[in-house]
Write a structure and sequence with these properties.
Order of helices and strands: HHHHHHHHEEHEEEHEHHEEHHHH
Strand order of the largest sheet: 1-5-3-8-7
Radius of gyration: 29 Å
Length: about 450
């Protein structure tokens, strides 16, 4: 239940209706408050001169003007956002739509105009047009006028914000920020040593029964209720081996988990299935592969013949290298999860540095094999990451990529001087990897 609620909140954050709806509700509450003050007549003679003091006819004309202007501007704001989204997705990829829609500034500006519109509409309804009813809510009218001026100021800010939002550095920083956030959630910053290896985890005494739990429908694995699965496994004295992880796409009937020890009752099976939240889209909450893919896609599109902008690809490589350096600098999380008694209850696959690096660099290398700047920058990133590695498998993977970059240069670059340049940098990278291997002790392997 908690995981489904989290996913619904994530969907709300990525929509154009959640924040504007809250702000429209705020506009209604503000109208009720100012109208109550008008009916109570709290304004004295001196304070009344500050607020609107005209007749009903002028008040109605003013509110008609303000309401119409707010509707027109809100339409322009929404249309502008749609145009910018269209241009941005054509240049940076459709995966980034969710990131743009999550932008709080866009949602807030749209909400301000809609809230002002609703407020002015409600105040207009209360202005007396009947000669016998000459009620003019002075405070409400003045607040509506002030909201209109404030909305005009936000339009100026919105214009500047949208212009900055679609610039390549800003887009890259936004997407890379989501990658850093996902890394912080999967690889929490800690001064503690790396998680215990296989010998440090006590497996419970289980029976010999095994049960496979399958998905009821298809979709991407968006959330896994790890704590709930551990609690369920402890309650029924079983071990749950998750066969899928964050970002995997499953079909109806795909095995989600394998239960070791005994077969679970139908209600327990339903509880396990409910902890795998499936949806039509991938999210960057804990899906590290998707977060890496978003940054890589910007680089790949920048290298396409349509854009031919290798310098954006270089920025992407620098930003990916910075994020992967963070991964190397933190303890590798364990795939083994234990209960309060220290017994193994859940095994959930996680992406480690080698798979993250493969996901980030393979597509960029394939599409950038004809760009000497891109190939050289990839070697530079590998050279900088080499001293940070602590495992032989990490250095071996970096060495394989360096060798693949050298081969790509030999086949993709037309000028021998460019090939020689890559070979020279390849030599520096290989020396950095060898030096890292000779000075770095091997830590224990995480489960």
């Amino acid at each position: 239940m908690y995981e489904k609620l989290k996913e619904r909140l994530e969907i709300a954050r990525s929509s154009f209706w959640y924040i504007p709806s809250l702000m429209m509700t705020t506009g209604i509450v503000l109208f009720a408050a100012t109208l109550s003050l008008d009916k109570l007549g709290v304004t004295g003679a001196w304070l009344g001169r500050v607020f609107y003091s005209g007749g009903p006819s002028n008040a109605g004309n003013l509110l008609q003007t303000l309401t119409g202007a707010m509707v027109a501007i809100a339409t322009v704001v929404f249309s502008t956002m749609m145009v910018v989204l269209t241009l941005a997705t054509s240049q940076f990829g459709h995966r980034l739509i969710r990131s743009f829609m999550r932008d709080r500034a866009n949602q807030s500006v749209l909400g301000i105009f809609l809230a002002t519109f609703v407020y002015c509409l409600l105040v207009f309804h209360m202005v007396g047009n009947d000669p016998k009813n000459q009620f003019v809510p002075g405070i409400s009218l003045t607040v509506g006028f002030a909201l209109s001026i404030f909305s005009t100021c936000t339009l100026i800010y919105f214009t500047h914000h949208m212009a900055a939002l679609v610039s390549a550095p800003r887009v890259l920083e936004t997407v890379a920020g989501e990658l850093d956030g996902a890394i912080a959630r999967v690889y929490p910053d800690s001064d503690s040593p790396e998680p215990a290896d296989a010998d440090g985890v006590r497996a419970p005494e289980l029976g010999h029964g095994t049960q496979e739990i399958v998905a009821e429908h298809g979709g991407y694995v968006q959330t896994v209720g790890e704590k709930a699965l551990i609690t369920c496994a402890k309650k029924h004295d079983v071990l749950i081996e998750s066969r899928v992880s964050y970002g995997d796409y499953v079909f109806a009937g795909t095995v989600l988990a394998r239960v070791h020890g005994r077969e679970l009752a139908d209600d327990a099976v339903s509880q396990v299935v409910s902890q795998y939240v499936l949806g039509p889209d991938r999210t960057t909450d804990r899906d590290l592969m998707f977060a890496v893919n978003q940054v890589s896609e910007i680089a790949v599109r920048a290298l396409s013949p349509a854009l031919n902008n290798p310098y954006t690809a270089l920025d992407c490589l620098n930003r990916i290298g910075r994020s992967l350096a963070t991964v190397l600098g933190r303890p590798r999380p364990s795939e083994a999860h234990v209960d309060d008694d220290g017994e193994l209850r859940l095994v959930l696959r996680l992406p480690y540095f080698p798979s993250l690096f493969d996901t980030a660099f393979m597509p960029i290398r394939n599409y950038g094999r004809t760009s000497v700047e891109t190939l050289e920058q990839m070697l530079s990133v590998i050279e900088k990451l080499a001293p940070l590695t602590r495992r032989s498998d990490e250095r071996e993977m970096l060495a394989r990529h360096a060798e693949a970059i050298r081969e790509s240069a030999e086949h993709g670059l037309r000028e021998q001087i460019d090939v020689d340049r890559i070979k020279w940098h390849f030599g520096l990278t290989r020396e950095a990897l060898e030096a890292a291997g000779s000075h770095t002790p091997e830590p224990p392997a995480a489960v």
